[in-house]
Amino acid sequence: MISFLDKAVLQFDRALQTLVPHAARASRPSPATSFEEGLLDQSERKHASGLMRINHTGEVCAQALYAGQATTAKLATVREEMEHAADEEIDHLVWCEQRLYELGSRPSLLNPLFYGASFFIGAGAGLISDKLSLGFVAATEDQVCVHLEKHMATLPIQDEKSKAVLAQMHTDEAKHKAMALAAGGYEFPKPIMAIMTQVSKVMTTTTYRI
After folding, report:
1. How far is residue 173's CA from residue 91's CA, in Å, rounded to a whole number?
2. Which DSSP letter does residue 20 get?
3. pTM (2 d.p.)
4. DSSP secondary-structure letter at 35?
5. Rounded CA gap, 171 and 97, in Å?
6. How far is CA 170 from the centre of its chain?
7. Per-residue pLDDT tens over the stretch 54-70
8. Interatomic CA distance for residues 193 and 187, integer angstroms
9. DSSP notation for 77-121
10. Helices 130-154, 42-72: crossing angle, 10 deg rounding
């Protein structure tokens, strides 16, 4: 049996890996390595950086969300699913971070704030019920897939490296959504999804620049 102190140490370590630049390690190579760097002008590079910063922050939030849910999940199977999904999301985190630095940019300065908020949201959902917690994962992944589709459509056409990263992320996120629903996740009604969309818009507008 893992004690509360052990859990706290593990979660602190995950937070450091998520928030400290270059601390996390991916288990898979970045899809971007298969492509040559495209020729981007200053405005295109700035736009690509802004989109990748949004996606990196989204992965920071995903790490915190899964960590919070795994901490309070009632069923061991649900906890294991959350931890497995979080491990796959680390790849996304590292890929986005690598791409940001390749573009001459950096992660959002607001990431610690978003991490803390997402952790408590995840932990709160887990305390209420595993069904709600899994439903929140499915709803969040649905929002992420929508954003990824929009970003792939608006990236500079010659930025194939960023598009390759987002395409693989989209495949993985769709799988996580299906996993959460198959495990018994609650399917959120449209009004709740609309609220989540508005909150997401505020976050993306902020992290695009900061």
Report:
1. 12
2. S
3. 0.84
4. S
5. 19
6. 11
7. 999 988 888 888 777 77
8. 10
9. HHHHHHHHHHHHHHHHHHHHHHHHHHTT----TTHHHHHHHHHHH
10. 170
